[in-house]
Amino acid sequence: MKSLPDFLRPGLSLLSVGLNPSPASVRAGFYFANPRNRFWRALEASGLAGHGFEPGPDAHRLLLQRGLGFTDLVKRTTSGAGALRSADYRDGAPGLKAKIEAFRPGMLWFHGRVAMARYLHHGEGVEAPAGWGLLGSLSCGIPFFVTPNPSPANARFSLDELTRWYAALAAELETVHG
Length: 178
Hints:
By secondary structure, the chain is an alpha/beta fold.
């Protein structure tokens, strides 16, 4: 199965980094396409990227114009994170690091602690800090923010909790970018 294309451009305010694409997202051609995934609802409710868009490839193009890009740590499509192996993270981290260094977004947004921890370990050679929110900066100086993964497999966090974290990210972006 193919993977999802990145939605990247120079001058991004925020780069969204997922763990890896799901089959539903690859089939639909856009990130977080599973109808049970809470990403789009939390994004809309939080006001992080504005309002008035429907999930789909066109929304990604609109969000890209608004300064929000999308990529994944691992580009291999799987039906769940449990199918990923250490080699996937080890192989994916250099590609993500190259994208970060080439496009230099204002901030990185990791969806879930696994994406953050695996990238920091394999891409930066450091251990992940505990917690959620703004947790530090990469070696290139770009700050990173971590929110719970919106996947339906991560039901431990409610839509309201996700929305609050996305709103906190919006506030942090406003502080950084004015």
